[in-house]
Amino acid sequence: MHHTRKEDSDDSFNKISGTNGLLGCADGAMVLQKQSRIGKTATLDITGREVADLRLKLEFDESKRWQFIEYGTDSADESSNKLLTAVQKLVSECHRWQGTPTELLGALTTAVPPNTKPNALTRQLNTSVQTLAQQYGIQYDFSRTMDARMITLSELPS
């Protein structure tokens, strides 16, 4: 357990006090933030090597426990929705797409910022698996072989 800095930042993990090595050497991190000291609601940001990035909205109840309210969103959602919409369009045209992250980046050039790296694209898709399935009707699979990393995108049956 560690404390956060007072300095504000858009990324809650930049608020972890100390060197960047603290977050770099940990398998995961959670940051609980309240808007005000006396507020009863908070957001819990979670990240890690084995965990998809997640934001939860919580409320402190009379029994002195945090209760889950809903999944939170952040400003990255707008660009994420643009990406997921582009993925849906790509899959609707071919019903099933398979290739490397670099090839997918090439197929989605209009939906991603110009300097996006293949691993950043993969990470964003890895954290959007449920959204892709539930809201866009797309099944996303990621696998690694000795030669390459492969992404498979396919339509889910209606």
General description of the model:
The structure is a single chain. By secondary structure, the chain is an alpha+beta fold. It has 5 helices and 7 strands; from the N terminus they run αββββαβαααββ. A 4-stranded antiparallel beta sheet has the order 1-2-3-4, with no helix packed on it. Strands 5-7-6 form a 3-stranded antiparallel beta sheet. Helix 3 crosses helix 4.
SSE blueprint:
Elements: H1 20-25, E1 28-34, E2 41-48, E3 54-60, E4 66-71, H2 77-94, E5 96-99, H3 101-107, H4 118-126, H5 129-136, E6 138-144, E7 149-155
Antiparallel strand pairs: 1-2, 2-3, 3-4, 5-7, 6-7
Helix pairs in contact: 3-4
Brief description of this entry?
The protein contains 5 helices and 7 strands; from the N terminus they run αββββαβαααββ. The protein has helices spanning 20-25, 77-94, 101-107, 118-126, 129-136, and strands spanning 28-34, 41-48, 54-60, 66-71, 96-99, 138-144, 149-155.
Features:
158 residues, alpha+beta, 2 domains, three-stranded antiparallel beta sheet, 7 strands, elongated
